[in-house]
Automatic annotation (TrEMBL):
Domain Topoisomerase 6 subunit A/Spo11 TOPRIM, residue spans: 207-377
Organism: Astyanax mexicanus (Blind cave fish)
UniProt-listed InterPro entries: Meiotic_Spo11, Spo11/TopoVI_A, Spo11/TopoVI_A_N, Spo11/TopoVI_A_sf, TOPRIM_Topo6A/Spo11, WH-like_DNA-bd_sf
Catalytic reaction annotation: ATP-dependent breakage, passage and rejoining of double-stranded DNA
Cofactor(s) this protein requires: Mg(2+)
All residue ranges annotated as the Spo11/DNA topoisomerase VI subunit A N-terminal domain in the record: 98-158
Any one biological process term the GO annotation gives: meiotic DNA double-strand break processing
Protein name, per record: DNA topoisomerase (ATP-hydrolyzing)
EC number: 5.6.2.2
EC class of the enzyme, as a word: isomerase
Keywords: DNA-binding, Isomerase, Magnesium, Metal-binding, Nucleotide-binding, Nucleus, Topoisomerase
Length: 383
């Protein structure tokens, strides 16, 4: 392993702090009873309101407003301590259907937790697709319920189908006892849909590389990147990561305590994807402690690399959406608080052009895996 990587790993181990919050329940059974109790309190309040001759309401924290967020550099984007709420009324014609769906989903979740069984969001949707209308309607309600009850979504016994893939020096046990080997050099393993129940993680990896795109991930596999340079783990959420991909990165970091690098496009969308892994998102801020990995380092493709490696001919002009996204990113606290990141964003703002990771192929077919990444990792080319 290179001197730079050894130094970084030593610093991580020496300065390792407990970033997450752990819930101290005496057993899994107590956790289930706690969720059931929280649901029962919601229903009891509704019944009491009806008995008083009033229309019941649900108070939901607003999850998609920056005004409801706060930033902690050791954790990421968190829900404000006193967030603004939206009132879902049962006596409002425009809200009555959504109110009824909330009660329906609460009932389904209660049954799952009570019987200690699990279901995917897709399973729940197909329980009555006409009732829910779209999968997204159900997904939003599940997340709102998780936020309202102040419990992680996995505690509701609701799972999401994973879209991410993982490969490299890693093996572990799934909840059902299945042993998963990720060592194949040509094929990746789907990220588990029940990451929290993974056990017996074994790896001699020196670092984790989070890859934005599936195409780049496949290129690394084809070039046997995980064995050619150092033993490592590579993972992709295939664009904007799903919850399971984010949970997996965090779990691996918690377990292995090794550096985590991000390889994304040099454009506003790529930067935002990296920030979701590192600092989280507004919509899931209430679960930030288990979803974010604040130690993620920006390995590439850095905007400053564009001129350094002479790939100007492969640049793509910004769209209006790119312009808007970059202006939004520039104002966020996790950008404005880091001078090195601000410089890179400033380069993009100045040139108004973006570069994909694949642009490095214009230099040489294997430039990414045999020159760019090895040199970055060897000489500390990250921020």
């Amino acid at each position: 392993m290179s001197e730079q990587l050894q130094k970084l790993q030593a610093e991580l181990l020496q300065n390792l702090q407990t970033v997450g919050e752990t819930s101290a329940s005496s057993s899994e059974e107590n956790g289930r009873l706690d969720v059931l109790t929280r649901i029962e309190k919601v229903i009891q309040k509704i019944v009491h309101t009806i008995s008083q001759g009033e229309a019941p309401v649900l108070q939901l924290s607003t999850r998609c407003s920056w005004s409801n967020m706060r930033f902690d550099k050791s954790v990421g984007i968190l829900m404000s301590l006193n967030p603004k709420v939206t009132t879902l009324r049962s006596d409002c014609p425009s809200a009555i259907n959504r109110f009824a769906l909330f009660l329906k989903v609460l009932s389904m979740i209660y049954r799952l937790v009570q019987t200690d069984s699990y279901a995917t969001k897709r399973d729940m949707y197909y329980n009555d697709p006409q009732l829910f209308g779209t999968q997204r309607n159900l997904d939003l309600i599940v997340d709102d319920i998780s936020c309202m009850l102040q419990v992680p979504r996995r505690s509701l016994h609701v799972l999401a189908t994973s879209k991410g893939f993982i490969s490299g020096d890693l093996c572990y046990l799934e909840a059902d006892g299945t042993r998963v080997e990720c060592h194949s050099t040509s094929m990746a393993v789907p990220v588990s849909s029940n990451v929290s129940e993974i056990t017996n993680i074994v790896s001699s990896a020196k670092f984790i590389l989070v890859v934005e795109k599936d195409a780049t991930f496949q290129r690394l596999l084809d070039d046997e990147f995980c064995t050619r340079l150092h033993p490592c783990i590579i993972i992709t959420g295939k664009g904007m990561p799903d919850v399971n991909s984010r949970l997996m990165v965090r779990k691996l970091w918690d377990t292995l305590h090794i550096p985590v690098f991000a390889l994304v496009d040099a454009d506003p969308h790529g930067i935002e994807i990296m920030c979701v892994y590192k600092y989280g998102s507004m919509s899931m801020a209430f679960e930030a402690y288990s979803l974010t990995t604040p130690t993620v380092l920006w390995l590439g493709l850095l905007p400053s690399d564009i001129e350094k490696f002479g790939v100007q001919d492969a640049l793509i002009p910004f769209t209006k959406r790119d312009e808007s996204k970059l202006m939004s990113l520039k104002k966020r606290p996790y950008i404005s608080g880091q001078p090195a990141w601000e410089r890179e964003v400033g380069i993009l703002m100045k040139c108004r052009k973006k570069a994909e990771i694949q642009s490095l192929a214009s230099i040489a077919p294997h430039f990414l895996t045999r020159v760019y990444l090895p040199n970055k990792l060897r000489y500390g080319g990250w921020i």
